[in-house]
Amino acid sequence: MGNARIFPLNAWYAVAWSHEVGQRELLARTICNRKIALWRKADNTIAAIEDACWHRLLPLSMGWLENENVVCRYHGLAFDGQGQCTRMPGQEKPTASAKVRGYPALERHRFVWIWPGDPAAAKPELIPDMHWNDDPDWEGDGKTMFAKCDYRLLVDNLLDLTHEAFVHSTSIGHVTVAETPLTTTSDERTVTVKRLMPDVEAPPFWRAQLGKPGNVDRWQIIRFEAPCTIVLDVGVAPTGTGAFDGDRSQGVNGRVLNTITPETDTTCMYFWSLLRNYRMRDQSLTTQLREANARIFMEDQIVVEQQQKEIDARPDYRLRNLVIDAGSMRARRIIDKMIESEPAPVGDVAA
Ligand code: FES
Ligand SMILES: [Fe+2]
Predict the structure, then answer these.
(1) Which ligand is nearest to the CA of 295?
(2) Would the pLDDT of 52 be above 60?
(3) Mean pLDDT, rounded, of the chain
(4) Which of 63, 163, 230, 268 is at 20 to 30 A from 84, Cα to Cα?
(5) Which ligand is nearest to the CA of 57?
(6) CA-CA distance, 351 to 348, in Å (whole number)?
(7) Domains 13-124 and 131-340 alike in fold
(8) In sequence order, which residues have a C-beta less than 8 Å from that of residue 127 and are 6 or more positions away?
């Protein structure tokens, strides 16, 4: 225990919101125990290279950008978006072998994604589906949580919404959620956990969104896409209006998009957004919902960070599993398989 790698490297990980990566400033991020410097090139594509100068290891993110290249703050070596050294002060031509590692980087669904593993395997179609984020039929916004925990604790948290009844008892929580049985299905890359709650009282949040009295049919469909993306399809409709049979037109529907990128073994970046398909282009509602959701997620943050402290204090303790943990157990098995199928990366400090 303790030393095994807990995340696959051959996967796309969100590292930033698109708007966080610009053409003037460098952004420093850590993913999968790798320090990376990011910026945007003149053609708008993203450059991502190892954040350590080839010469004396000063983080390149401490330097600056000059003609699309990063200049090291210490002795002025310049590196291009591939990590190739393009200028060496005091030499007419830079040494050809002067190179830091470059990472495949792409922008999609309002996020910047990086592939920390084998570049040859980095296929764009493997980017997790979060298309609601820039789909004109959906409206919403989100934030980033920097959490001091193993990213899998947040995967566990999202795959089991039983915790809503206890962690979020004052907002979205309702005992019905904990009492309703769930179904779990999975394939090689995904796990789906479904809870359908027919004819229940609407919790305060959904009551307000629906704006109609009476009981509701409520659904929570959670889809995990390995290794760390979870999309929640949630909503309510007046009882018996056909929501469980595919007609959600009388109800309100939300998508909570979550992708949780490991920074280190015990810290992560959690990117989330909350989308809706009603009251479109209502910016004040968008802001209100985003902030309300951020407050709800702070309740989760307290739980998972404390959990991590207890895990650190008892490194040999095996977390117990209940029926409600079926989804997260399958997810963790998929993650473990991905890790096992990868060759141990050379020089990987965490392996
Ligand atoms: S450490 Fe970067 S140029 Fe010397
Ligand atoms: Fe939660």
Answers:
(1) 2
(2) yes
(3) 94
(4) 268
(5) 1
(6) 5
(7) no
(8) 12, 106, 108, 109, 113
Cα–ligand 1 centroid distance for 264 (angstroms): 26
pLDDT in tens, 236-286: 999 999 999 999 999 999 999 999 999 999 999 999 999 999 999 999 999
| Alpha-carbon span 139 to 258, nearest angstrom | 16
Over range 197-222, report the average pLDDT: 93
Q: Kindly tell me if the per-residue pLDDT of 149 is higher than 80.
A: yes
Atom of ligand 1 nearest to the CA of 76: 3
Q: Which of 26, 50, 51, 55 to mutate to test the pocket of ligand 1 (most atoms within 8 A of CB)?
A: 55
Q: How far is CA 275 from the centre of its chain?
A: 15
- Given a cut of 70, whether residue 346 has pLDDT beyond it is no
279 Cβ closer than 6 Å to some ligand 1 atom = no
Cα of 323 to ligand 2 centre, how many Å? 18
- pLDDT per residue over 286-326, tens digit each? 999 999 999 999 999 999 999 999 999 999 999 999 988 99
Question: The tokens of 246 are what?
Answer: 């595919």
How many CB atoms lie under 10 A from the CB of residue 302? 10
Residue 70 CB less than 6 A away from ligand 1: no
Sketch the domain layout of the chain as residue ranges.
13-124, 131-340
Q: Is the CB of 56 under 6 A from ligand 1?
A: yes
Regarding the beta carbon of 72 and ligand 1, being less than 6 Å apart is answered yes
Q: For ligand 1, say whether the CB of 59 is within 6 Å of any of its atoms.
A: no
Q: Nearest-CA neighbor of 23 among 57, 58, 70?
A: 70
Q: What is the pLDDT of residue 351?
A: 36
The CATH superfamily assigned to 13-124 is: Rieske [2Fe-2S] iron-sulphur domain (2.102.10.10)
> Does ligand 1 lie within 6 Å of residue 78's CB atom?
no
Choosing among 3.40.50.150, 3.30.930.10, 3.90.380.10, 3.40.228.10, the CATH entry for 131-340 is 3.90.380.10
Nearest to 9 by CA among 258, 230, 262, 187: 262
